[in-house]
Amino acid sequence: MLQKWITSIGLDIGTSTTKLIVSKLLIANQQNQFTLPGCQIIDRQVTYASSIYTTPMLNEVEIDVQRLTVLLEQEYKNAEISLDQVEAGAVIITGETARKQNAETIVHYLAEHAGDFVVATAGADLEGILAAKGSGAIQHSAETNAVIANIDVGGGTANIALCQNGKVIETFTLHVGGRLIRLNSDGFVTYVSPYLTEFLKNNSLILREGEKATFEKLSSICQLLAEETVNYVRALIQTSSLLVSPHTRSSIQPETIMISGGVGAMMEKQKPKTVREVAVHGDIGPLLAYQFQSIHVSQAAETTRATVIGAGMQNTEVSGSTVYIKSKKTAAEKHSDYRNTCTARGGVESAAVSRKSSSVMHAGFNYFQRRRSSRCYCFIAFSLLQL
Q1: What is 45-112 written as a DSSP string?
Q2: Which domain of life does this protein belong to (predicted)?
Q3: Fewest beta carbons less than 10 Å away: which of 96, 173, 264, 358?
Q4: Which CATH fold topology does 2-123 show?
């Protein structure tokens, strides 16, 4: 059985923080005389974890590409790796950062300058799944046969994944995060997210920029945010003004709730007792963490780095066998590669492959045809997976 170690990275550019991990993945070719080639990742080792940085911003709507590039270059040096050594992994732009004006520009820049891996702005579903993988929630559900909910609470959103038997069965996202309200050390509010407007109004609360917030008001807001999140996760309420996108909550109730993300990491700290202690990071993160802790939910095994570990270690698949058509290429094409292209997945139950695969492929082809510009080629890859 042929084996090979490859270098993988995970980079998470989030609302509040940016962090990177480097890992080694052991790939084994498990082909035998009766099967097609089949490669699997049989071992994973984290070899380097960066410091946790504040995500560099030019202003409220733009990410600072130059500072982000300097940060990435320095971390590559610290990890003692070069671009040509990076063979797998992912850069994920998450939370409110994915909605910034130049997020797409950064995606394309990183695809060209950061190594051979996937770069994406993560939608709510993907971010929740990656965090559930990295936090250990999916593995825990496989080991216990219980329904496990992982709530990854960052700066701008709480991404929730319900897991059962080692699979994610439901995902949704709420506007709940440590940086939705920002304040200085004297308690003066410098920012209130517009996503909280309806929620605060529904709870007869008013918080304005420039206002000097009291500890009691901040505590009430954080308590209500934590309670609404957990009640929705437990299916005790069926709707919420905090939902990022419309979602019909199933009746499935988790037996265990785990908290990951930056807010999850702060759950082990003591309760802040003053506004100054709340605002140690310039936001309400510490107080929100305490309110989640008081509801008696569990801190995940991996918190702050859950998403980046999910992206860099737990979400890489290796192609086993490939069917291709060899054609004549121009000189330029021979020296070009294709990266940063779109992919789409169509789930097909194994028993229905022969019946449905044709329609899935047809739908996939139509999807890419719609996205293709007149000056671009369209590359399509289909994978029939046992779900």
Answers
A1: EEEEEPPPEEPPBSSSS-B-HHHHHHHHHHHHHHHT--GGGEEEEEEEE-GGGGGSTTHHHHHHHHHH
A2: Bacteria
A3: 358
A4: Nucleotidyltransferase; domain 5 (3.30.420)
Phi/psi of residue 177, nearest 5 degrees: -170, 165
pLDDT at position 13, please?
A: 80
pLDDT score, position 62: 82
Which H or E run contains 162?
A: strand 158-164
Contact 319, 39 (CB under 8 A): yes
Helix (H) or strand (E) holding 153: strand 148-153
Q: What share of the chain is helix, strand, coil (3-state, %, to 5)?
A: 35, 25, 40
Look-up: residue for tokens 């923080």? Answer: 17
Q: Which helix (H) or strand (E) holds 42?
A: strand 39-49
Let me know: does 318 contact 25? Beta carbons within 8 Å.
no
| Residue 316 phi, psi (nearest 5) | -105, 130
Q: With respect to CATH, is domain 137-301 assigned 2.40.30? A: no
In the chain, where are the structural domains located? 2-123, 137-301, 341-387
> Token pair for residue 266?
């702060």
> pLDDT, tens digit, for every residue of 289-328?
999 999 978 776 555 555 555 544 444 444 444 444 444 4
Which element (helix H / strand E) includes 219? helix 215-233
Q: Could you give the CA distance from residue 266 to residue 116 in angstroms, rounded to a whole number?
A: 34
What is the C-alpha separation between 236 and 228, in angstroms, rounded? 9
